[in-house]
Design brief:
alpha+beta; 3 strands
Length: about 70
């Protein structure tokens, strides 16, 4: 099972800014174990040498899930 499988995922906008006032540049990840919601920016520009948005999200969500496993 992957870290991604432990979360319900709702994508935000891949194009930002958007003309839709209810749109968001953040994806929402809801933990299937405890229901905690994480809002994570998944698209945009990063500086050279910085982790990609996907790598940063994977670490954040992985750290959360590992807390459930260690209990």
């Amino acid at each position: 099972m992957s870290v991604w499988d432990c979360f319900e995922h709702k994508s935000g906008s891949k194009v930002w800014p958007s003309s839709d006032p209810s749109d968001s540049p953040f994806d929402r990840f809801t933990c299937k174990v405890c229901g905690k919601v994480f809002s994570v920016e998944m698209y945009g520009a990063t500086n050279l040498g910085e982790p990609t948005f996907e790598t940063a999200a994977f670490k954040l969500l992985g750290d959360h899930i590992s807390g459930h496993i260690s209990k």
